[in-house]
Amino acid sequence: MGNRALIVHPSPTAVAEIRDVLSHHVACDSAHTEADALRRLSDTEYQVVVVDRKPPIDAFRIVAQTVAAQPDAFIVVMTPDANEGRELDTSMSGKVFRFLAGPEQRWQLTGIVAEGLRLQKLERDQKELIKKLGLEYGKLQKREKLLDVVVKERTRELQIAYESLKSSSRQALLGLAEAIEAKDPYTKGHCGRTAVYAMALGKEARLSETDLEVLEFGAFLHDIGKIGIKDAVLLKPGALDDDEWKHMKIHPVVGFQIADQLDMLKPMIPCIRSHHERWDGTGYPDKIKGEDIPLLARIVCLADAYDAMATDRPYKRAIPMDECKKILTRQAGPQFDPSLVDLFISRGIMESFG
Ligand SMILES: [Fe+2]
């Protein structure tokens, strides 16, 4: 779009002179009367309005009409003398781009119009940019909302898939625990009770949700290696001799070998392999000591030992709770992690399960 100026002046000669000055910047229209000027302002779009204050032209009305009909146009007012220009400056403040005093300043018009047009273009570009940014921002917001919905939907699907996988893994693991107990009926219910005590202790020890999940199954399956123990040893009602003990003591390593081949069981390896280690380092199979023994294994060790004490077995009666506490306290340090024994007793875990 080319730029267009309206020159308002009662004298055709003056209009011709002004047109000469401006014509290489803008296309020019002219109005010699106020009525003509007002009509053109409402008909045609102008970027520049040059108005002379020479009577009978009322420059105020022309300025007011320009502001109303052509808010983006810039106005240059020419006054007969400089003093009048200063008065006008106050009364038209903010609406007139420049005042020029008398014909002698007309030569400045070229520079003023060029500057005005440059500013106008900058303003237009700025508005365009703001509009564009607004559109892009709107699009971005829509895209973000869409993405949010998709992410939520995918998360929900994954959650469902994970829950179903977890539930089938749980079934498979519980099946394994049953298989261990079927092999050793004397310890019926032992795996489940060990898991219950271990979980109670794990919660008191403020384990994370993930660790608690591993601990639950680790406690359930800690004796999985007993699948590899001969029946004659596993089911022997009386005390084991040295060779039999030696054979019995391989069950953590047998369990480890089984778990090491199944991804599902790998997280439980510490519980399976190390639940017979002792705090003082005299346990088996690796003779590790103190905090070198994985925490989950230390918890299972305590829960396992307590259940063995507190339940009837074919070859022994259950030990009363007070006596169990004494044994656990005595073994805190040699066999068990002392801080875990402290938690187990002080938080009333034994009492809460009767
Ligand atoms: Fe064991």
Task: Explain what you see.
This protein is an alpha/beta fold. The protein has 2 domains: 4-124, 3-Layer(aba) Sandwich (Rossmann fold), CATH 3.40.50.2300; 184-352, Orthogonal Bundle (Hypothetical protein af1432). Helices cover 59% and strands 7% of the residues. It has helices at 12-22, 34-43, 59-69, 82-91, 109-183, 190-204, 209-220, 231-234, 242-248, 251-259, 269-274, 295-310, 321-331, 338-346, 349-352, and strands spanning 4-8, 27-31, 48-52, 74-79, 98-101. Helix 6 runs antiparallel to helix 7 (209-220), helix 7 (209-220) packs across helix 12 (295-310) and helix 13 runs antiparallel to helix 14 (338-346). The radius of gyration is 48 Å and the shape is rod-shaped. The structure holds fe (ii) ion.
At a glance:
59% of the residues lie in helices and 7% in strands. It has 354 residues and is an alpha/beta fold.
List keywords for this structure.
354 residues, alpha/beta, Rossmann fold, Hypothetical protein af1432, 2 domains, binds fe (ii) ion
